[in-house]
């Protein structure tokens, strides 16, 4: 039992954080708003160079062979930077779906292995569009999409779909409604296997957003602490007032207790993604709660400035609003927990924080992640 | 990261579970804020000590097992799961004990920790005064040095368990010229010393869980001074750190309560009219899990030589508000019967437990530093907001 990250994981996190704080500034995010693609190629290339796209691709396909726990702090940092490019969606969600499919098919479909190699090197991008999300963010920038048709999983080239661009309240996002026709040659999984893939993918997507929401919350609070320290009224910083302090302290408490839920979910997804519903929903619901509170309280701390276009806070706030509802909103995830709590055989109580394996009533080898 | 218990940890859990099963009193003990209940709880502490389960994290020489914090969490999980009696000596074992481990001399440890661990001496806390609540540095109660003794005069208030306890650990002003957090000393005082008067204060449940303590020329040996004379503030802050940080409220307590809440919810599900209850139940269960996970995280970090860090000031707010939510939700589920006292003909054990817990939960956001003070600490020390 060791609920900490190792030095390698923390080091990877630190280098991504450093890179993002230099390369993804508010000014450069605003520049993306005026561009057609919404992508900053230079920033994207530095992230590829750092190994993000290769991270979750197996070593035999040219990747780093890392797992969800290794990447969860990276997703948090992408949230903290309000990174517009869909790195987390492609690396932490679509790529592992392809990896799972390739494993289930035991490498029999050579397209998947080749695609994974191209993903690892940063040459190609895949995104997925589960039925729970009405739109795909940055679909136009992807080479392939993973799309559902019932339980079937289809791998569809971007030129075989029609994209209808939608404008999000968050101008960093580039949403598309996707129209396409399922064909037998695009289908890579069906039946039980397809259902498992979508189930895992929903968990990965919700987890990915939870981690980003945590980073967004902490970034908003940090900006507001700075604002409350600099801004003076009645001859002293507004941050000396308890009413202001407590608004931000409340956000800190929520974020602090969303954290371990996200990390446990990352571990559970790494070990058994189809059986991570409850831990992922806990992570997503609490991270969403933290992000909603941060959006609201941080706007309040900024006063009238917080309601302006000029103030950068809305870059983070609008992202928080959108990620909170994508991959299942609070209602969806709380309902999953509710259903589970009502099951007569649900494992409830203090001895079951990490499931039942430790009680010796299930055969499962120790899995260190 | 490895979220599987080791074979040794699983073995320890089984040992705790078996021992508790064999030793827990058949009927629930009466409240420890009564004469009879306090005596029964004192006996239970002795039973725990005989099984070497008094305080598993303490070194063997002080009656412990030298366990790490993960083992402590496992012990607590089994303890609450089994419905074992509340720890009547929590001021001693959770607060003073760790303080003595860090600041006591070998002779003081030998004298006080052993008696605490064996269940023979029960402790109360003597910090607050009528004029020193949240502003603890305003303490006025004096201890004047006279040779190798201190002479204590003044008053303490809100001393939990002091009505029945044997000893009280106090923060007293040893330098009469000093002010604020200077000139304070951490001194242990026997409650049966001549000149000590303990006046009970009934709490919300009508029982004397609190007391006022009056000191009138009370003489104690300077052997009872912990740390440096005048250095009491830093020691008290360390004690408060244990209180807010990790040990005072173990997560299992809330996980067990939220499990009972889910069971009550399943029973009453068809009678619920209040639309907010479903959300509250889900929220309570999630938050109890989150508190447990956070504690495992902190325990793992400490085992790997990390530090507790300022984010631990979030704990106290989180568990105290969680405890209120759990009990408020249970009271809503119980509806108009929730008000029935245990002595009523219509009362059953379930009703009484929730009412007791509901009353006690009211104190959570107040004791161990009010949640308003905690929010200031979070804002200033964790987030770095300006003090003035």
Describe this structure in words.
The complex is a heterodimer of chains A (369) and B (388). Chain A has 369 residues and is α+β, with helices and mostly antiparallel strands. Chain A has a domain at 201-359: Butyryl-CoA Dehydrogenase, subunit A, domain 3, CATH 1.20.140. Chain A is built from 11 helices and 9 strands. Chain A has helices spanning 7-23, 26-33, 41-49, 68-80, 87-104, 110-120, 191-230, 242-271, 277-302, 313-325, 330-342; strands at residues 126-128, 136-137, 144-149, 152-157, 162-166, 175-179, 187-189, 232-233, 236-237. In chain A, strands 1-3-4-7 form a 4-stranded mixed beta sheet, with helices on one face. In chain A, strands 2-6-5 form a 3-stranded antiparallel beta sheet, with no helix packed on it. In chain A, a hairpin with a 2-residue loop joins strand 8 and strand 9. In chain A, helix 4 crosses helix 7 (191-230), helix 7 packs antiparallel against helix 10 and helix 9 (277-302) runs antiparallel to helix 10. The radius of gyration of chain A is 21 Å and the shape is globular. Mean pLDDT of chain A is 95; it is low at 358-369. Chain B is α+β, with helices and mostly antiparallel strands and 388 residues long. Chain B has 3 domains: 7-88, no CATH class; 123-235, Butyryl-CoA Dehydrogenase, subunit A, domain 2; 249-382, Butyryl-CoA Dehydrogenase, subunit A, domain 3 (Up-down Bundle). In chain B, 46% of the residues lie in helices and 13% in strands. The model of chain B has no long low-confidence stretch (mean pLDDT 94). The longest helix of chain B has 28 residues, at 276-303. Chain B contains 11 helices and 8 strands.
Taking the alpha carbons of the first and last residues of chain A, their distance comes to: 11 Å
End-to-end Cα distance of chain B: 41 Å
Number of domains of chain B: 3
Report the portion of residues of chain B in β strands.
Answer: 5-15%
CATH topology of the largest domain in chain B: Butyryl-CoA Dehydrogenase, subunit A, domain 3
Output the CATH homologous superfamily of the largest domain in chain B: Butyryl-CoA Dehydrogenase, subunit A, domain 3
Proportion in β-strands of chain A? 5-15%
Give me the strand/helix succession of chain B: HHHHHEEEEEEEEHHHHHH
CATH topology grouping of the domain at 201-359 in chain A: Butyryl-CoA Dehydrogenase, subunit A, domain 3
Structural class of chain B: alpha+beta
What proportion of the residues of chain A is helical, as a percent range?
A: 40-55%
Q: Spell out the helices and strands of chain A N to C.
A: HHHHHHEEEEEEEHEEHHHH
From the alpha-carbon coordinates, what is the Rg of chain A to the nearest angstrom? 21 Å
